[in-house]
Structures are given as structure tokens and as C-alpha cells.
Task: structure prediction
Amino acid sequence: MHRPRIVLGQVRRHPFIVRLDRYFNLSDDDLASLWGLLEAELIVNKRRDLVVDGYEFRKLCLVESGFAARYKLLRNGKRQIVNLVLPGDVVGLPGSFLKKARYSVLALTDLKLQVCSVSDYVRLCYKRPQFGLMLSWMAIQEAVTCAEHVIDTGRRSPTERLAHFLLEMYTRLEMVGLAANQSFELPLSQEVMSDALGLSVPHLNRTLAKLRIEGSIALSNHRVSLTDPTALEMLGNFQPLDLTCAPPALAPARLG
Amino acid sequence: MHRPRIVLGQVRRHPFIVRLDRYFNLSDDDLASLWGLLEAELIVNKRRDLVVDGYEFRKLCLVESGFAARYKLLRNGKRQIVNLVLPGDVVGLPGSFLKKARYSVLALTDLKLQVCSVSDYVRLCYKRPQFGLMLSWMAIQEAVTCAEHVIDTGRRSPTERLAHFLLEMYTRLEMVGLAANQSFELPLSQEVMSDALGLSVPHLNRTLAKLRIEGSIALSNHRVSLTDPTALEMLGNFQPLDLTCAPPALAPARLG
DNA sequence: CGAAATTTTGATCACGTTCAACTTCAGTGG
DNA sequence: CCACTGAAGTTGAACGTGATCAAAATTTCG
Result:
């Protein structure tokens, strides 16, 4: 089987690695091990379902570029988006660890992915324990993002929710170099946003308009500008996600 | 320092171990390693905050018995409960992996806990990689529970939410032997439930009454009986959480 | 037993949904 | 280039749900 040569310099620019490297100081060796697992590079077209609720899925897909949504369709016909998947995120976390996926994942734009199998990854975890910890870190990040989302939909007013959402998008995109100067590209329809925030489309639209009129944000095409971040932070009560750095591999205790 | 002798038979009955053992076949050796990390056994009284939003927390506390709530207090005075912590769950996941905790954890009943430090645990992960995977599994479970909670608060009607919630409680408690025959002890005030489900107390009360009148549930003191589980499952669209079992430690590929 | 917390009930009202129409825009083919 | 089409965004009016506030009933606990 032919394996392309791995160019570490390029790998280090991959948004997933950029994100991980904040918490783990990845050695060239680590990168080589991880990239050695990859089975395929995949392009998925907009509107395609990547993961389907109810079916087994056993891959981890590192998102190099593009947006996706993890969602659930309910009996009553409504849709709830559980989380947006941005560049640097992983598709298949948590779905690949369940006997059958509970959510579907939909490509909101064209997507470029690197794919590896879960079993290969887990095997690597046994050989190099730091990879197990990386998985934990990713899952914890996922859990916290989700927890914040519970608070959004549970107890925040529509305006607060939207403010929080936009700030979350900004910081998550900024982490991977896709946002700067209080401004970023957000290729989501209002229907997607409303299903993420648990609002109706008309009400989301009005809420968006409200923030625009107040001068807190500006929109053009799909570019969002946070023109009054302070006001938004006040509204949304947003706190950036600050995971600790993982302790280094070698136990500092009991040096022999 | 005095360490109590570890009685493995007892450890195996600990709800946390019971829960983990479904996914990992824990050897006596694993149990000994894990129990060797424990620093203290702790009793926390009802109404005490175990973790406080905004403060550093670096412990993992295995809940042997009792109920707690992970919650956030918002600017507007409202409270959202992100997740209920049941016997077998871990307090400090995810809080201990953040620079500062983002949520508080409140004891809803008296609590009995086994405590270990995060850095000790992580150190163990490097020595025995399966512990890193266990942490991943726990975090993934957390993420999925939370995701389900997003759907609840986002797109389910109050009745659906409550049905889903009661079924979730039943299955989580059943996993650790605290529920059977469609019936279980749930020592939560209606205020707690309403803050978990994002409803007002009066409305939760009415919703509870509705399910009672329809004959789907019965309540006495704090014992819940699911008298018509089928109806509830229909309403709540509940799916039990079925994590995969972790692959075994030894890679089946390339035996040398 | 008395005090406090919790549960239950009722009345009112605001917010956000729903449904429908209309506008704007992007893409396509005549 | 414009007409056509379908998707996405915007606006309006009416309705219903669930919040809010208040008070009563009940339970719990010191």
C-alpha cells in the first residue's frame, strides 16, 4: 500500500494539531505516529450526511476545513443541533464510541477530512499513553462546550443565547486562525442557527436584527463582525474555554 | 502515612467500578492501582458546595453514595443544572481539567466520596494506558449525557423533557444497582428538577401532575414508579446510552 | 409544636411560536 | 441580458404556552 510522505511542517499547520498543541507539546514523533494512522483524506460535499443516527460509525475524522453540524431529528419533526463542528474538530467523537451513533452529522459546507479508524487510534493509545490523554482532553472539551449549550437553551434569553453563540464561534475559530479583529466568516443559514439555539427562524432573525440595530454586531454576506464585544460579553456572559495543559509525560515524582 | 488495606471484593462493589467494569474488564491489578491513588474518603453534607465556580479544583471524587448537581448561576439570577451527579459518577470531571472550574457542584444529599488528585491520576495514565482510556470513556459518557440534555432543553416540550429525564434517571441508577422494577428513589426537590429541565417550578409541578394523572408515573415521598414505561419512552424518545466496550489492551495485530 | 422549606393551585401576562406572505438573492437557462 | 426558479432572509398578525407572581396547603425538620 502506498503511503504519502508526511511533511511535518504542513501537519503542524493542520487546525486539529494547532488546537491540540496548546495543551500537549507534540513532538515530531507524536505527529508521525498520529499521521501514520490516517487511512484516507476525504472530501465531503455540502448537504451530505457524514454520520447517520442509528448506524455504527467507527472512524475519527479530523476536520481540516469546512463546517458541519451534529444534530438529532425528533419524532415531532423538529431538529436540534447539538454542536457545530468546526475546522480542527473531530467528527466521530463521541459517535464512534457508541454501539450505534445517536446523532447525525451533516456537512454545512464542503468538508476536507483526514480519517483514521477508532481501533487503530485506541491501539496507539496503549503504545503511547499521551494519545489516550489527548482523547480525554478532546472529549472533555466536547463535554464543556455541550454543557455551555445546555445553559444556553435552558436558562438564557434569546438575545443572551445569540450573543453567547457568536462569542463562542469567534473564540473557537480564532483558536485555529480563522477569526481575527472581532470578525469572522460564518457560513451558516439562519435555519441552522435557530436549530442550534432552540429558537424559531423568525425569532432568530428578529434577535439578529436587534443586535444589529443596537450596534453590537454587523453582518454582511456571511461575515460577522462583533462591533461591540463588550456589550456581547455582558449579554452572553461568555467565558472562554480554558483547559489546563496536560502534565508532561515523565512523572516528576521519584526520580530514580 | 497510614494506608488502609484494600479489600478488592468491596472495591468491586463500588458503583464507580461497577459502572467502569461494563466497558473495561478491570483486573485486580487495575483496581489496586486505582485504589492506591486515593488520598481520602470524604463525607460531604447536604447543601454544601463541593466545587465552586471560578476556583481551581484538582481532584477526582468518585461518588460512592448520594446525589449532587453541577450547576451554574447566571447574571440574571437563574440557575441551570448542567448534570446530576449520581453514585458511580465523578465529581471534578470536567472541572479539574479547566484552569478554573466553570460550574459549581452542590451536594443534594449527604455524599460519600473517594478522592484522588488529578495529577496522580494522570501520572498513572502514563504508566498504565488503560486509565487514560477510562478517563476518555467517562468524559465521552459525560458529553453524550450533556448532548441529550441540550436536546431536552432545546426542542422538547415540557412533558417530553420530564419523561426523558425520568427514564434517564432510571437507567443511570439501574446501572449501579439503585433502581429496579421500574421504580427508584429520587431525592430531588422540584426546584432542582425544574432547574435541570429549564422550567419554572409551577410548570414542572403541573407537568408532573399531568404524567401522574395519565397514569404514566406514580410518586410517593421521593420514590418514583414508572407505571407506564412504554408511554414514557414514546413521549421522551429515550435511548439508553450504550458505549462500546473498550478494545483489549493487547493489540491483536502483529503479535511478535 | 413552630418555623421553614416544599408542593400545589390560581390568575395574569409576556414572550416566542406559528403560519403566511413578501422580499431579496444566487444560480440557471432561454 | 433578463426571466425564471428555489432557497434564504424578513416582516406581520394571532395565538398559545409557559413564566411570573401570589397565596394556600402540605411536609419536613429543628
Q: What stands out?
A: Residues 157-158, 199-200, 202-203, 206 of chain B lie near DNA strand D (CB under 10 Å from a C1').
